Amino acid sequence: MRVVHSPIHGLHVPRTEVWTGRLVPHVETPERAERILAALEEDGSFELREPTPHGVEPIEAVHDPGLIAFLEEAWEAWEAAGEEGEAVPDTVLHPGLRAGMGEGREPSSIVARLGYWTFETMTPVGAGTYRAARAAADVALTAADLVLGGEPAAYALCRPPGHHAARSLFGGYCYLNNAAVAAEHVVRRTGEPVAVLDLDYHHGNGTQQIFYERPDVLYVSVHGDPARAYPYFTGFDEETGAGAGAGTTVNLPLAPGCGDPAYLEALDRALERVRSFGGSVAVVSLGVDTYREDPICDFALSAEVYEEMGRRVAAAGRRLVVVQEGGYHLPTLGTNVRRWLLGAAAGLG
Ligand code: SP5
Ligand code: ZN
User: Which stretches of the chain drop beneath a pLDDT of 50?
Assistant: First the structure.
């Protein structure tokens, strides 16, 4: 299978995050991508390449140009303001803040602008964040191009991840929504509908938001029930799309401790929707933070199930653009991704 990766991810090094009042070392580290790369290189059945620059246009197709411009200049503005450490807001624009007073405009100070363009405090901007996020989008676009060129599947080793980034918001360790950028690119190049299957432990609030009113992009997600799991405010099963996109969002939230059988049952339901949606390409947001030892999640999946998962997804009969999202258990991260991809390769026949 073809694999796209960029060493530029290493310029993005988030240092710390605050979990419910505790300052902890950040879990979304460069070592994650290094582990995945090492596991794929070790196998010998993967063909690696670097991405082709695609410019900002395919990113502006799914994101507010204001968000992109902000991410590009945020670090410089933070430094110019004499702030120390990583760029993190202390206040975010909760809708209640201006309730009944009309929409606020983008503020001018860097700390306020951070709070205007993000929804939480666990996604710091550093010196190399923008370059890494742009490279990750190029990785996803290049994998999409390989599939558009006839490959049955391609894997985009994206870092930072993307599925929490909405049209006008970054957050959830995500800055630009790599999977959404790839899906929109495929829609525009083929004129066909495209399914996005999100298998990260966390609900992909960003991808759902971007395509919520779109009849031509199906968003199907299997994830930890937001009743207990980040991002808490989206991913409930009653969220099914709106307007022209009514019925093209499908959420399958799962209970804590979810094991292999319950997970595969939900996956089969998700795949039924993918099959009936049409189109010849599907984008998979692959997070392996569903693994039983993942430090920030609470499913109980075995290592072996990743191969079966990949096999079943490939058997749905779509060409696959597989985009890396989360997964934080470093000792198994690479091998779980490898299992998934080898399963998919087997399922594609
Ligand atoms: C791409 C992706 O997987 N983003 C996930 C962002 C989740 N950030 C919130 C982490 C909260 C961790 N709570 C830890 C509980 C440990 N028992
Ligand atoms: Zn996740």
Answer: none
